[in-house]
Amino acid sequence: MENEERWEAEANRLDIQNRVRNLMWTVSQDYELDIEVDQESWQKSKYIAFYDAVRHGGFARYFSTEEYEAYITKRVYAGWEPSVLLALGKLCIDCAVYKKLEKERRGISSIRRRAMRDTLEKDSMRLTHTDWGNIEACYLRYMLDGTEADERNQRLIDLICTLEDAEDTLQIVNCLSRVYESAYAKGFTKKFKGLSEELMDSGEENKEYTDKEYLEEESRESEDEHKVNLFTDELMEEEDMMNRHKANVIVLDEESSSRMEEYVERNYGKSYLSAQEQKHQNSQICRGNHEGSRLHFTDGLLHGELQDSAKAEYVKKVRDENLKVLNLNQMVTRQNVQMLANTLKRALLTRNEKEVVSSEYGSICARKLWNLGRTDNRRLFEREIIRDNTDFAVEVLIDASGSQQGRQALVALQGYIISEALSIVKIPQRVMGFCTFGDFTIMQRFRDYEDDRAANERIFEFYGSANNRDGLAVRAAAESLEMRKEENKILIVLSDGRPNDVIAGSLRDSKKEAYCTDFAVKDTAAEVRKLRNKRVAVLGVFAGEEEDLQAEKKIFGKDFAYIRDIGNFANVVGRYLKRQLLDV
What we know:
Blueprint: H1 2-28, H2 39-44, H3 46-62, H4 65-77, H5 82-104, H6 107-122, H7 124-129, H8 131-145, H9 151-161, H10 169-183, H11 187-191, H12 211-216, E1 250-251, H13 254-258, H14 260-268, H15 275-285, E2 294-298, H16 310-328, H17 330-352, E3 355-359, E4 363-364, E5 381-385, E6 392-399, H18 408-424, E7 429-437, E8 440-447, H19 470-482, E9 488-495, E10 503-504, H20 507-510, H21 517-533, E11 536-542, H22 549-556, E12 560-562, H23 569-583
């Protein structure tokens, strides 16, 4: 009986698959085209699944899927959120193809309208959970009966509707970029209190590529290797942001994979480790969930042979913009540095005070002699303890992924405030940034433990790019921190709570689970727990959007700081560091 039910279910699944594919082939007139049918969509509504196939086929017929895939891939490289990009891209594609399809096949109009109604009715949780979900809901209502949305969303819908007469893929991706930047604008910069208004748009002109340049570059991804489903938004979870569907992996082509190390050196700088040291680090650290990954330790492009390259010029430009933000906010920065330094000084002075503790040896304490023969208490003596205030080392680890681009000056400013305060009280510290490109997790050293205070300004070379494999970066930072001679160690992680590495360096790596959403959050949280079990204190400083707060809490537990007002930065971080200095 059970086998019959299983057989019937499989037959039903294959029937659905065939019906959907036949519809897509009919529309696209390309019988080599393929689509993975979403069983959940079918269960909600067969019309949703049918129209997904129609839209897929229509786009393949009238536009270039290769150019669109190249655009998506490189936007993800630049740190754009795949789930948002794909969700908004679906709306742009729909608007670009539906009129063309309806002219040829009248029945498509009724399938489309039924799919839209069913989506509004049966996907209400997803459509109300995020800004871009709300944009989709507004778009569907507008297409069904002309219902206009609020001013902001209607402006975006009107922008999408300009694609009704689109003739090439470049028009679609240009429109998608504008919609994405409006719908998923990084609110951190605009909402962060206490900073000069002049910095709000400073990062816009520091984009590394334009959409036209993306499409002009040759796209060599083969059909077998490219795993992104560009016509659904399955990276989004309808019920729970932390338990999303398994994400797709973007796989690099053979040439990109073989030249990956060359690319990393050209874009991030040569490694300051010897080849043997690098190999040892990889073998010791890149294990478990990070097997097959590689680490690249560098001082950056401005401190090596490639400081005259085009990419180095870009880094100089970003550095100058970051320093401009520092100059515009000198007073608030100085106040934060001084407040944090004073907090640390007071804590260290308290540590220097003599502390009297009960002991089994030392000076006899007359008031405790009554314990003799009456209790098992052997602590009848007292002795003075003076704790060493030089037995601390701090590692500051900064997420330098592309998702930080919109707020990179502010993140650099936070790292600088911490580093300056630690320098004033002479606590040894190292500051590292990290991002992930293909197989490589790049660890950029801004200042080392032995550097003097002047090195702190190198933190303003910080910029966001590529992805972020947080668990591996935390493990790599911990490796060097644990080797320090100081007894007490603190790791401070500035991140946006969104570990995300969905670009695999080879087809073999694509078979692994994508490093994002809940899987990546759990992995990073596990690395933090391991460190705390080794008596390394870990603090997370949240530099992201409110929607990612739950992930940050999962990673760092109660020891994380969420700071929206720069004037309060020193107080919040200072309270944590003071507690660490006094509790050990």
